[in-house]
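Before anything else, study the sequence and fold tokens given here and see whether the fold suits the sequence. Record follows:
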Amino acid sequence: MDDAPQWDGALAEVDPAPVSLLARVDVDKVDDPGQRPSDDQYLRYVSLVSQIAACGFGPGPFAVYDPFITAMLVRAESDLAVVASALGDSDRAERADRRAARMHAGLMERLWEPKVGRFGYHDVTADRRATPDVIGAYGPLLLGEALPDRVAEALREGLELRYATPWPLPTTAPSEPTFDARRYWRGPSWINVNWLLAPFVGIDIVDRSLELLDREGFREYFDPLTGEGLGARSFSWSAALALDWLAAR
């Protein structure tokens, strides 16, 4: 989700001045360069990598607590505990369970925003919180039954109210000022996000996604309003996840 709106505040603090823009090959892979991150964003990306490398890959100038990544780590640690237990490695299973519990507690205590009914983001460097209406704010649905009922209900309601586009799921709510239906992670629907969240929401994501792939081919991402295929063609994870859905049927 490299150019998603949730990073705008923190990325604005990254100074692009020391960097000369490298030759961009990504814009040659799409029909319209306007579908990709801007040159200014790429300048900041390269500057950020340079600064992180300069400080020995320790804490750098960009640090944001992200509910989606945190939820995926909780889920991964929980899965690791199950596998380790099945293999008779109780010590490894217990350590994975402890890590999962610690991250789950941190997610709920630090990032849940009940007033808006979704999770927020915390820019550690600036000590600043933000609650953009982006798909990552609903990512903790991945935790399934481990998520409190009231929280899961609020997240599902938010998605059904604000993300039910003709071709779900957009990666930014269309009501957000930053929404752009055609630019990378600022609005388009992605098959991998749909695959991750489909089991946890009431929106008919799977059928619509398969219909989209059949109509447009295995594109990288899609306009959530028109269904137009965008980005790269013959995109492997779109194809792989379609196979997973079809195999399940």
Observations:
- The first helix runs from residue 8 to 11.
- The CA atoms of residues 165 and 224 lie 6 Å apart.
- The radius of gyration is 19 Å.
